[in-house]
Structures are given as C-alpha cells and as structure tokens.
Design brief:
By secondary structure, the chain is α+β, with helices and mostly antiparallel strands. It folds into two domains: 5-372, no CATH class; 388-488, Gyrase A, domain 2 (2-Layer Sandwich), CATH 3.30.1360.200. 23% of the residues lie in helices and 33% in strands. It has an eleven-stranded antiparallel sheet. Strands 18-17-20-15-16-19 form a six-stranded antiparallel sheet, covered by helices on one side. Helix 3 packs antiparallel against helix 4 (161-171). The chain is elongated, with a radius of gyration of 24 Å. The two termini are 38 Å apart.
C-alpha cells in the first residue's frame, strides 16, 4: 500500500502511464482476474545474540529458504479483491548452494502441516493488503489438534509459545497470511489503490502508527522514486520506515524481561550501561520495488528489516520476483551465496496429515494492520552442540520456596535440586549451551530458558507476574519426591 499522505492521485481510473522530464505517474494496482502469476521467493534471517553468549559459535546464526509461489486474482470489484495463493515447501531448481543450506524449507513444511493448508484464499483491499482470511476457523482447529498431540505426547501448556500463537491467530486471523505468505505483504506495500504522480529523486515523507503489545508506536516513512525504465515500462521506488525508539522500547518491556529470565546468570552480572542497552529497542525497514507502469503491480521487491530488542538483533531479508522477470535489484549475499555457514539443525517432520485448501466460507471480519504490514520474526541460536542429541532429564526437587528473584528483584520461586540431580543438571546444561530448553512441571511447559553457561549450583528461579501462579507451583513441588522435567526445545 503506497502511502504518500497528501500525494494521493486525483484520477484513480487513469491507468495509462505518463511522465515529463521529472515527473512520473504510477498507475493504481489493477491486476487482471483469472491470470496466474508465479513468484520466486527468497528469504533469510540473521540472528545475533552475542550480547548474551560468551561462545562465538552460539552467538550468531543464519538461515534461509527459497520457494515458488503461485497467485491468482479470483475476483475484483471497485472495493476489494479475492486472491488465492498456492503454497509449497519444495526447493526450486537453480538455487545457489547445497540444499542443506536452505533450512527454512523443511521448517516451512512443518508450518503448512500445522496450519493444515497448501492453498490460502483471502480478501484484500485494492492494493493487495489482506482484510479477511477464508477458512480461518478450520485452520485454528487444525493448529489446536496438532498442539494437543505434541512431541512425546505432551500437549502445549496454556502459557506456552504454541498456545500463544494459536490465540493470536484466533484473535487476528490475518496473522495466518503474515506467517505463511509474508511476501504478499511485501508486494502489497509497493502497490497503490490509486495512481500517484511523483518527481524523480524527490523524497516524500509521511508517518503512521502501529499498536505493538498495546503501545502505539509511531513510524516515520520516506518514499522516493529512484528511476524509470522506458524500455521495460517500469519504475523503481524505495521505501524506509523507522519506528520511534522510545515507544518501541516501551512495547518490548515484557519481551526484555523474558530474555533476562532466560539468561539469569548473565542478567545478574549486567552493568547499568549494559542494562540500558538491553532495554533499548529499534526497528528499521527498507524496501525497493520495481513497479509496472502498465498495471501498477510489483514485479520485483527486496525488503530488509532489522530489529533490536532485549539485547538480540534479528535481520530478515525477502526477495520476491515474478518468474519471467529478470533480476534488477541487488540481492544480499545471504540469499545467493553458494557457501553459507548454517547451524546443523535436524528438523523432524510433523505427523503427516492431508493439507487441504482453506476455503471454508467463514464470515470473519478483521482490519488490515496499521501501515499495511506486520512482521513476525523467529530467532534461533545454536552451536556445535546441536549435532548431538541431548536426552531429557527428570530432576528431584530438594526445596521450592517463594522469595526475591535475583534477576528482576521481585518475587520468584527458588528451586534447589538434590545433589544427584544438581550434578545431572550441570551435565545437561553443559551439553545444551547455546540452545533453548523447556522446564516442565506436571507435563506443562513453565518456562523456556536459553542455556548460556553450565548451571553448577542446582538452583533454578521461576518468575511470574502473578504471585498466585508461583504459589500453585510451590505447592506442587512441596510434596515428597517432587520432580521437574527439563528438555531441549523439540
């Protein structure tokens, strides 16, 4: 959704491109219904957790994926469109590097199984921004079914990450598009519902507000028409978005607290300057679009997003191109390198199910996210220990007492293990350095800490904003022979 504030074109029906020596008229997005387009999509993420890890091998990780997508406009009227995307996790022919360096592809296959789709239909506005996902109820039901039959037969806890994702999708079904077809949002951001006349090299500024974790975060936006190609009949646009760091930092307070809980020993040793750094957040999005001057559609797009939060930096890269369109934008090396150092992850496939198109005629109304885009980022960190299977362990509890948390200086459940279990826990955490783990009590996931260093004292602290939850856990662990279960995140 191109957004130029006062620069909205006055003649939305005029689609013929025109330009003078300095001005170019970019038409409104007007795709032909019934025509299928194939897109070649490349994605990658770089996660830097060097702030939290001493081991360089555990501090940074790169992952990438490559896909072919098919999209067709099923119908279009004066207010909206209905589109269908066909989804596939198979690695396309002709990619650079070994198939093993494209670890997002098997992860995406599991996502398709978890959501239960291989096609997705949704309604959009005239620029392509989703407004209503068809079949959302069926998708949520499939996700709940998969969560109820988790690894080892253990269902997802009410406060676990999986359950949170399901509830977020139930509250806003548009997140299904964000999770499965983020490139649809990238394309829509460069397409306009009405024509605009722009001056080459002139920067056009605007602003928008997005609600993040209940906090209104203002973003400054700059659009620039870089150039035109009279032979290809295209224009190249650039876009940048910078979120207000103060409001964004406020929105990330809960996430920062969880990060500190995941690294309790490191958190206790932070200086005041380091603590201030952990609490600072930033987000920058830059994009370039090659837009057709015939129908206003984006033929090629490149987006880079950099997010800093809780002492961790995540960068994502997305390149989308119509299959028959030549590459004209400079592609980051992480997407094209023949040799890419990636973690040795073993992605276990989810139980096979028959994925069916989501075409249930649900009447679900939801508004598009402010600014037209929303991004979900998944961070991972790993090291050489990920080559070894680490067995889960059961640990005997010596005592579980409510008291001050050494991490957040508030209430916490202080758990001390028996000597034998403390030794087992030391060996487990030594083997799991650089990996995320889960602590379970009564088959429920209580927390998911990252292991930064061996835990040698047999002491575990569980924090919760609700004291009653901690009191319940303390009662459960007060019985004779009480135990907790610890494993690497499946």
């Amino acid at each position: 959704m191109r957004f130029f504030g006062f620069l909205l074109g006055a003649y939305a029906g005029l689609l013929a491109p025109a330009w003078s020596a300095e001005n170019v008229t970019i038409p409104a997005y007007a795709p032909a219904p019934g025509v299928e387009h194939v897109y070649r999509v490349q994605m990658a993420s770089e996660t830097d957790m060097s702030f939290w890890f001493d081991n360089p091998g555990a501090s940074s990780v790169a992952m990438r994926g490559a896909y072919l997508r098919r999209m067709i406009i099923l119908s279009r009227d004066e207010k909206s469109m209905r589109v269908r995307w066909s989804l596939d996790s198979a690695l396309p022919e002709g990619v650079s590097g070994a198939a093993s360096t494209y670890q997002l592809n098997p992860l995406y296959q599991n996502s398709l199984l978890a959501y239960g789709v291989n096609q997705l239909e949704f309604e959009t506005n005239l620029s392509g921004i989703p407004s209503n996902v068809l079949g959302a109820d069926a998708i949520v039901a499939n996700m709940q079914k998969m969560a109820a039959n988790g690894p080892g037969g253990i269902s997802a806890a009410p406060e676990s990450g999986v359950s949170n994702i399901i509830e977020a999708v139930r509250a806003n079904p548009l997140q299904i598009v964000t999770a499965l077809i983020p490139e649809a949002l990238v394309l829509a951001n460069g397409q306009g519902a009405s024509e605009e006349t722009l001056e080459i090299a002139q920067a056009y500024t605007s602003s928008g507000t997005e609600s993040i974790s209940g906090v209104d975060v203002r973003a400054e936006i700059i659009w620039t028409l870089e150039s035109t190609d009279t032979v290809r009949h295209t224009a190249t646009l650039s876009f940048s978005q910078t979120d207000d760091p103060i409001a964004l930092s406020q929105s990330q307070q809960a996430a920062t607290a969880k990060m500190m809980t995941a690294f309790p020993e490191r958190a206790k040793a932070l200086t005041s300057d380091q603590l201030a750094e952990v609490k600072r957040a930033s987000k920058n999005r830059t994009s370039r679009f090659v837009v057709s001057l015939d129908d206003g559609s984006v033929l090629e797009a490149l987006e880079t997003v950099a997010v800093r939060s809780g002492g961790m930096t995540v960068r994502t890269f997305t390149h989308v191109r119509r299959e028959q369109v030549p590459v004209s934008l400079p592609i980051p090396a992480i997407l094209t390198s023949a040799t890419l150092l990636t973690p040795d992850l073993r992605v276990e496939p989810l139980p096979s199910t028959t994925a069916t198109p989501a075409r249930v005629n649900d009447d679900i109304q939801a508004s598009a996210p402010p600014g037209g885009t929303s991004q979900a980022h998944v961070a991972a960190a790993g090291n050489e220990n990920q080559n070894t299977v680490i067995a889960p362990i059961s640990l005997q509890v010596k005592s579980a007492i409510l008291g001050a948390s050494p991490v957040h200086h508030d209430i916490g459940l202080n758990i001390d293990l028996t000597p034998d279990s403390a030794a087992k826990f030391k060996d487990f955490t030594q083997a799991a350095i650089g990996q995320q783990t889960q602590v379970l009590i009564d088959d429920k996931v209580i927390m998911e800490p990252w292991i930064r260093e061996p835990i040698v004292d047999g002491h575990i602290v569980i924090t919760d904003a609700d004291r009653k939850n901690l009191e319940i856990l303390a009662e459960r662990l007060a019985i004779p022979d009480a135990s907790i279960f610890v494993r690497v995140v499946p």
